Amino acid sequence: MAENLSVIISNNENGIDVDKWDYFLRDSLQLNLKITFDYRRLLQFCRVAAVVDDGNTEHVCFRDKEVTNIHDMFLVRAYLHHHAYQHRVCQNIEIMIMDAFQLADQVGFTVQIPGDPRKYRLSEAHESSAVFSTLTDHVFYSILYSVDPHLALSRSVLNRILRRELYRLVGSRRKTQEAQGAKDFKYELEQEIKSILSLQTEWEVSNFTVGLIDIDMDKKSQNPLKHIYLYKKSNINEAKANPELLQLMQPMSNQFFRVEALVFYKNKLEETEVKKIQEMLCLDHAG
After folding, report:
1. Which domain of life is it from (predicted)?
2. Does any domain span residue 239?
C-alpha cells in the first residue's frame, strides 16, 4: 500500500498523477485555454485493487466508466504542449535566450552567491546546486540592463525578443521513420543543412538553427495505456487493462503526437529566399 501513495504524486507507469493535474489547472488558467478533463471524477473513482493482468499485484486503478475522462487527460496534455509548451514561438524564444546566454558566457559573464568567493560562468553554474538555483529571470535582466560593452551582442539578442524581432521560421520537417529517435532526427537535419547549404554563399550556415517539437504520451517509447487498469462496479477489488483506451487514443495520436524539426534563420530573409531554402532542404511550409 505504501508504494501506491507515491504513485499518486508521481506515476512512472502511466503518468496519471496529481502533479500533472496541478499544472493542467494553473497553466490552462494563465493561458486562458479551456480544458475538459475532470480530475475530481478521477479521484472519486480511484482505488487500489488487485490487477489480474499483473499477477494480482495491487495498483492504483480507476472505474471502467472513466475511460473517456482518462482519454481527455492525455488530450489536455498534448493540447497544452501543442498550443503552449512546444509552440513554434516558444521554441523560437527559447533558442534566442540560449543564444544570448551563450554569448554572455563566452565573454565571461558570471554569477556569484553570498558565502562563496568563486564566480561561476553560466556554463559552470550546474557545478553548485546553490548557484544553479539562483538562475532565475534575473540573469536575463542582468544582461539586458548591463552597460558592459562585452555584453553588447548578448543584449542585442534579448532586445530582439522584447521587440518581437524573432528568428525567421524557414520551414519544418516531420519525422516519418518510427525507429529513429527524436534527437537523431534533429541531428540528421542539422548535418544536412551544413552539407547542402555550405556549398552556397547566399546565407551563413552558422545562422541556421534547429528546434525540436516532441509531443508524445508522456512516456516516450513506452505506451502508458498498457499500465492503466480499470475495475468494474460489480467487482471493485479486481482490475485489468482495457483495450478500449487504445482505440480511443488512435485518432488523437494522429492529430497531436509527433516529432517535428523547425528550421530557423537568425537574420531577415526575403520570401523568395525562404521558398528557395525550403526547396533545397525539402521542408514543409512554415505555418
Report:
1. Eukaryota
2. yes
Hunting for cell 502533479 — which residue is that? 19
Q: Is residue 195 part of a domain?
A: no
Cell matching residue 184: 537523431
> By residue range, what is the domain housing residue 239?
2-86+223-257
User: DSSP 3-state assignment of 76?
Assistant: helix
Q: Is residue 41 part of a domain?
A: yes
Q: Which residues, in sequence order, are CB contacts of 270 under 8 Å at separation 6+? A: none
**CA-CA-CA-CA torsion sign (121, 127, 128, 132):** positive
The CA-atom distances, in angstroms, between 19 and each of 16, 53, 219, 241 are 9, 27, 15, 23
Which whole-number Å values give the CA distances from 132 to 74, 83, 146, 215, in the listed order?
Answer: 32, 29, 21, 28
Contact call for residues 67 and 225 (beta carbons, < 8 A): no
Span between the terminal Cα atoms of the chain, in Å = 50
Instruction: Tell me, yes or no, whether 43 lies in a domain.
Output: yes
Rounded Cα gap, residues 141 and 268, in angstroms: 25
CB of 273 closer than 8 Å to CB of 160: no
**Residues 45 and 66: beta-carbon distance below 8 Å:** yes
pLDDT in tens, 122-145: 999 999 999 999 999 999 999 999
pLDDT per residue as tens digits for the range 49-71: 999 887 888 889 999 898 888 88
Low-confidence stretches of the chain (pLDDT beneath 70): 1-2, 218-223, 244-256, 286-287
Torsional sign, CA 186, 192, 195, 198: negative
CATH of the domain at 252: 1.10.3210.10
pTM of the shown model: 0.85
Q: Please tell me the distance from the alpha carbon of residue 269 to that of residue 197, in angstroms, as a whole number.
A: 15
Contact between residue 43 and residue 231 where contact means Cβ atoms under 8 Å apart:
no
Among the listed residues 257, 151, 259, 261, the one whose alpha carbon sits nearest the alpha carbon of residue 208? 261
The total of structural domains in the chain comes to 1
